């Protein structure tokens, strides 16, 4: 197996979240309230106590007739609960406060808090709307009775944890709902220069899911968003040179290393094997059933023939009565037989005779199909003995003899046609044999000329086959140029007047005497005729390639028609099936996806948002714009600490890509330092935990008395928080 093989599994329940024990009321609770995950723990600790998906689901258990509220990882207990789980966030703004309340209840419960008397330090996104923050403040003070609360930006907390409080630099926070570029100069955020990119982890996983849906529109299993998210984090990476790598991403050597085969679960069909004796019995039963059906069909045909003969005799006798009965009596006889007049009788008589003749022809055709004569047998046939009635005058034969004579005439015509075809084939074989001898002489006497002619003929045949395919496709579209020219030719031929009698002085119609005259019919070929011509061309090129493979040293298997038209050699096949063996009959292969170009394309949106139609600048372009607003001294301070944080910063190669692109526009010798956060997912919580045990946290926190006096919109600005509105 080439490439990487990955088995897709449904999200599994990791186990119940353990409950922590309560601590002193002076220790603050630190909550990193992200739109993907919530992390909570005690201030001053190195790691959070809780980490779970920020989701809530109300699941109805029909067996127990009970509705349960599941939060976080508990939603994975039941597939139905996960499918209806809701997030408190819409993008990166909280808009579902019922869900947020349930998540906070769960958080405080798992932290072992019975009475909320701990200060709260909570993260929020950059430029969080005032309404969202004031509603959270009101919820914490009114419902949970917290003593104080302070808010800070998650990306700045991560920068604080990695670079220090008084440092300068740029925090590139690649979050779940959106991404932010936050410059910090001498420990103070430059909020007026910060920028947001409306792209994050949720957008990336959703984009990957859509790419798979367009790539495999008829895949039998639906990929879950959580599965797409897991694949994105496990296999996507940043390319150092996107244009160069994407140009060769479907090369065989690249696919053999980078193609990821995703195997989805499937149920193998168990085939019940039968013994040879059982198979023979089944085949014999089928043959016996066929013989019975044929016998029944023969009996029905005889019965129908007898009925038609009887009906014909009845109608003929009725017609003969016209000469013996009076006109009134004959009319009465017609009405009794169901006919209104004699014309209707004649029409019915003609219809019956036509059906009898049609049945005789069908029986004769069946007889001809059953008697398949060989070419040698045809040569030994004595025409006079085989068809004795052909030359007998009709006056000497009765009705039965006339029928046999008609049958023998048809048989003799068929025999004559086959004999003529045999003679034509003999002539064609002689001409072909002569051509082959001349070709063999040319090969032996002038090999270079022979090889040149064969190569030119091979190229000519390939072009004709390609043109044949193009014409077939265009004929299926009545508005195409080919279809319109075909109809024009037909209209021209149909509009030419037919000369019934040649007038004196007019030349004789010689159309068809020259081979050039028949080329007009090539312009009016239909798709079926083009198909036959295409098959003839393919047979001709196969025979030519057999010679070239044997004698032409430069003609190899990869130059043949089959190799050039093999679907496995196309980019589309490499894109959808990689280089792994694919069997259309295999159930396992039909439940496989190939993850190749998407590994580069999805993370590239961070640098080139126009890929998905997003009219925004990429993260590197934003950083360059920020640096252009500062002096050289300030720019040197900013580029000393470019910290990449957030879930998407875990893409391999992202820090090197940012460094290379910035290095190309900075002066030589610039102190550029680009690095990823020590823990991109947890550093925001860790930075908030470190800051929550400082004296600054106590000064910045909004106390319950200040809330009651100044209302929920009150906010104290600090280095890691949002600016005042």
TrEMBL record:
Cited Pfam families: Actin
Segments for region (Disordered): 1-24, 492-511
GO terms, molecular function: enzyme regulator activity
Location(s), subcellular: Nucleus
Annotated Gene Ontology cellular component terms: Ino80 complex
Sorted UniProt keywords: Coiled coil, DNA damage, Nucleus, Transcription, Transcription regulation
GO biological-process terms attached to the record: chromatin remodeling; DNA damage response; positive regulation of macromolecule metabolic process
Similarity comment: family membership: Belongs to the actin family.
Name of the protein in its database record: Actin-like protein Arp5
């Amino acid at each position: 197996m080439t490439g990487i093989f990955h088995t897709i599994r449904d999200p599994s329940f990791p186990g119940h979240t353990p409950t922590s024990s309560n601590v002193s009321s002076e220790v603050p609770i630190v909550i990193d309230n992200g739109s993907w995950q919530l992390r909570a723990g005690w201030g001053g600790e190195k790691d959070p106590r809780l980490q779970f998906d920020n989701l809530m689901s109300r699941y109805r258990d029909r067996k127990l007739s009970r509705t349960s509220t599941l939060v976080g990882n508990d939603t994975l207990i039941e597939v139905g609960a996960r499918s209806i789980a809701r997030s408190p966030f819409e993008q990166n703004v909280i808009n579902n406060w019922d869900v947020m309340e349930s998540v906070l209840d769960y958080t405080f419960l798992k932290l072992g808090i019975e009475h909320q008397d701990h200060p709260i330090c909570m993260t929020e996104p950059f430029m969080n709307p005032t309404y969202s923050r004031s509603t959270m403040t009101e919820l914490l003070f009114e419902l949970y009775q917290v003593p104080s609360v302070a808010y800070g930006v998650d990306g700045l907390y991560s920068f604080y944890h990695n670079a220090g409080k008084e440092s300068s630099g740029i925090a590139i926070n690649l979050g779940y709902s959106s991404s932010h570029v936050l410059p910090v100069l001498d420990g103070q955020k430059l909020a007026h220069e910060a920028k947001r990119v409306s792209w994050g982890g949720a957008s990336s996983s959703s984009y990957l899911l859509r790419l798979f849906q367009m790539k495999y529109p008829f895949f039998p299993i639906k990929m879950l968003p959580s599965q797409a998210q897991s694949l994105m984090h496990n296999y996507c990476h940043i390319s150092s040179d996107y244009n160069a790598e994407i140009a060769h991403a479907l090369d065989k050597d690249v696919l053999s290393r980078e193609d990821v085969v995703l195997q989805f679960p499937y149920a193998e069909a168990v085939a019940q094997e039968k013994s040879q004796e059982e198979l023979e019995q089944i085949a014999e039963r089928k043959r016996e059933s066929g013989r019975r059906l044929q016998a029944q069909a023969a009996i029905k045909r005889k019965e129908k023939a007898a009925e038609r003969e009887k009906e014909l005799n009845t109608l003929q006798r009725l017609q003969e009565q016209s000469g013996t009965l009076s006109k009134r009596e004959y009319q009465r006889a017609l009405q009794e037989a169901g006919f209104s007049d004699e014309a209707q009788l004649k029409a019915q008589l003609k219809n019956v005779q036509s059906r009898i003749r049609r049945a005789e022809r069908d029986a004769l055709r069946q007889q001809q199909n059953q008697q398949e004569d060989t070419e040698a047998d045809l040569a030994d046939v004595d025409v006079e003995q085989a068809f004795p009635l052909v030359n007998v005058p009709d006056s000497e034969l009765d009705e039965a003899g006339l029928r046999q004579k008609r049958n023998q005439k048809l048989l003799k015509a068929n025999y004559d046609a086959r004999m003529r075809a045999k003679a034509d084939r003999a002539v064609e074989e002689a001409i072909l044999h002569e051509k082959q001898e001349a070709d063999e002489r040319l090969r032996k006497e002038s090999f270079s000329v022979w090889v040149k002619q064969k190569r030119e003929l091979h190229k000519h045949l390939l072009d004709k086959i390609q043109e044949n395919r193009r014409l077939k496709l265009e004929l299926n579209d009545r508005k195409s140029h080919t279809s319109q020219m075909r109809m024009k030719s037909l209209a021209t031929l149909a509009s030419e007047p037919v000369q019934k009698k040649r007038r004196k002085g007019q030349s004789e119609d010689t159309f068809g005497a020259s081979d050039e005259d028949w080329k007009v019919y090539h312009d009016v070929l239909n798709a079926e005729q083009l198909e036959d011509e295409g098959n003839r061309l393919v047979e001709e090129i196969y025979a030519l390639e057999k010679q070239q493979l044997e004698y032409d040293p430069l003609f190899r298997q990869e130059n043949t028609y089959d190799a050039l038209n093999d679907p496995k050699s196309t980019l589309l096949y490499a894109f959808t099936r990689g280089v792994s063996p694919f069997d259309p009959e295999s159930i396992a292969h039909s439940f496989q996806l190939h993850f190749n170009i998407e590994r580069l394309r999805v993370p590239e949106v961070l640098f080139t948002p126009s890929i998905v139609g997003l009219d925004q600048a990429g993260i590197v372009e934003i950083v360059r714009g920020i640096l252009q607003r500062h002096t050289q001294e300030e720019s040197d301070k900013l580029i000393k600490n470019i910290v990449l944080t957030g879930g998407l910063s875990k893409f391999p190669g992202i820090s090197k890509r940012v460094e290379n692109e910035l290095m190309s526009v900075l002066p030589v010798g610039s102190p550029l330092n680009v690095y990823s956060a020590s823990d991109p997912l947890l550093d925001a919580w860790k930075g908030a935990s470190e800051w929550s045990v400082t004296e600054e946290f106590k000064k910045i926190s909004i106390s319950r008395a200040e809330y009651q006096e100044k209302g929920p919109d009150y906010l104290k600005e600090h280095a890691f928080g949002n600016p005042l509105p």
